[in-house]
Amino acid sequence: MNGFLLFSCPKCGGKPPPHPITHRKEEATLLPNLLMKYMEIRKDWTRAGQNRGTSKDLKAVREALSYLRQKGLSTVEDLEAFLESSGKSAADYRSQMKPKEARSKVIDWILASRTDCKECKPVYEKYQKIFFKKTKEKFKQEHPEVARYEKAAAYLAKHPDDKDKTKKELQQEQEILLSEIAELKVPLTDVQEDLKKLRDIRYWVRKATPGTEESKEPPKKQPIKEVLQDKADEKKAQRTAPAQIKHRQQDMEL
Q1: Helix, strand, coil shares of the chain as percentages rounded to 5?
Q2: Where are the domains of the chain?
Q3: Has residue 46 got a pLDDT over 50?
């Protein structure tokens, strides 16, 4: 556990502080100290599962400390500032992607609507020539092409600016949009991965900080899968114990 103290106090560099109370307050915001405190809290596993749970958490905390060191984050303030900055970056990438994705979907619908109009037009023209209301209604019920044509035509009417654009022009526009979306997804994915790690770390830190909502939460129960595995391990140990004792006795007799 002592190996987790990877950061020294940024104010004093590890030297004896001139003001002990102030120094203690500063140390209380150091992320490694809070993560070690979180590890102590996580020992509230069931007796049989303590080792497994502690080992899992130990790995997660080690990875978190390595990540924090890479990002240059040492205090709670650093963590919150980086979280806010990363959140703004993610929102900016999404705001750039949203209109491009929306336009790409519009192009999909325009192309599909044009296809529906073309395929259903002969049936729709027959429908239009029917004079009697009841006969017309019956024809529409028996021919779903009529509803398809009407829906497609209504959608195209909502996008008059695209009326004279060829299929090739629309497809070329969509290819550019999809390329731009793909380019934005790369940094967005990186930021989202950062946010996931940062939020996990912030939860652990708040869990170890008195007065926070997270610190008031009851201890989490051991996952049922691990409970069953623990019971199976205990039964296996009980079965093998007599045989081990017998072997030791035989060795002693020899």
Answers
A1: 80, 0, 20
A2: 1-74+217-247, 93-195
A3: no
Which residue shows structure tokens 């599909």? 112
Q: How far is CA 148 from CA 34, 49, 118, 135, 139, in A?
A: 62, 61, 11, 19, 14
**Per-residue tokens: 125:** 């023209």
For residue 204, how many other CB atoms are within 10 A of its CB?
A: 23
Of 17, 71, 15, 64, the residue nearest 36 (C-alpha): 64
What is the model's pLDDT at position 5? 43
Distances (CA, A) of 61 to 1, 40, 56: 10, 12, 9
Residues with Cβ within 8 Å of residue 107, at least 6 apart in sequence: 170, 171, 173, 174, 177
Amino acid symbol at 13: G
Q: How confident is the model at residue 7 (pLDDT cuts 50, 70, 90)?
A: very low
Task: Give dist(CA 36, CA 53) in Å, integer.
Answer: 15
> For the chain, how big is the Rg over CA atoms in Å?
33
**What is the pTM assigned to this prediction?**
0.68
| Two tokens, residue 210 | 């008195």
Angstrom CA distances, 22 to 6, 11, 229, stand at: 21, 10, 47
**Residue 7 exposure: Cα atoms within 13 Å on the Cβ side:** 27
Asked if residues 114 and 170 have their Cβ atoms less than 8 Å apart, the reply is no
User: Exposure of 149 by Cβ count < 10 A (0-12 exposed, 13-18 middle, 19+ buried)?
Assistant: buried
Cα(130)–Cα(222) distance, integer angstroms = 71
| Token pair recorded at residue 65 | 């400390």
Amino acid at residue number 226: E
pLDDT over 50 at 11, yes or no: no
Give the orientation angle of helix 133-142 with respect to helix 145-157, to 10 degrees: 90
